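Following up on my earlier thread - several people asked me to post the actual chain instead of describing it. Fair enough. Here it is, all 343 residues.
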Amino acid sequence: MNKTSRKEKTLYARVREDLRTKIASGKLAEDGQIPTERDLCRTYDVSTITVRQAVGDLVRDGILTRIPGKGTFVNEGKHEKRIAIGLVIGDENSGTDAYFFSNVVRGVKKVIAGGSATCLIFNENETGYCSDETVQGVILKNPRTNDIRISLLRERGIPFVVIGNPDDDTVVFADNDNVAVGESMAAYCIERGAKNIAMANGPNHLTVSMDRERGVRKGLERAGINGAFDVSYSNFTVDEGKQHALRLLRNKPDAIIACDDHLGVGAIAAIRESCLRVPDDIAVICCNNAPTTICTSPSLTAVDIFPETLGMNAAQLLMDIIAGKTVKSVRVAGSIIARESTR
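Reply from S.P.:
Thanks for posting it. Predicted structure:
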């Protein structure tokens, strides 16, 4: 199959599934006529042949009926009544985020699979999840302080759930207890003899970064380590993690706590470049437990934060909210997976 035909197939599948969603959500009503081929071509910016393929599939599935001389109509009772939920992904552009997101999606799909909902994915820079009439609820990921997306959803009256800490007691969320995660990482290092702990943290506008830092500080205070605490902030990439770790090494830490896996990999690279050893000279522990943690040398001790479970909890919370049920936010505990980068 050549490139043109593959692209055409992708386009017609997109049109077909969008029409299916609009029919299932009631936007295209039973016994109602769907837009003409010309109108659909304009709406989706595709060719006539693409529209005909998409509509043809739905006709074969019994969802639509073509009536010569009149048009194409939605069949009554030939489709499931389904709702669409929007999953808004971040724009962090990191492999760790891709791992986290893919597992969140897997969790969401486990909840809605075979049920009465479908999932539409939006980038956080889009606003379609607020304007698309087929979307009856939204899951937001990676909340910020004073998150304008939350304000926008409230303004539009769209039910939503946040994966992460929304920093707002009135918002329903599914999250790790990231303060406890940070505290447990600090305690783990201290139990193994660390006294001068530094932190390679994520962006300071993300609540996950600040919650984990708050937890590390709490762990240090609990152990009676009250001196200066060295912390750096960067994006979740290996390169930035390495550069910030090189700066942290100036103060000769005996352990580095990384906010995510890529920052942990960057820290190991910086330690090696400085002719030091992990964990003999400096221990490293990180969050997320992505596959990269077992591919490094030495392998990385990591906190598993169970993103699939977060996705499942978020989806169930949102479905319950849409159904008019009373819900409570959910926190998922993390679990330290010991590997070679700590003593």
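The longest strand covers residues 83-89. That should answer part of your original question.
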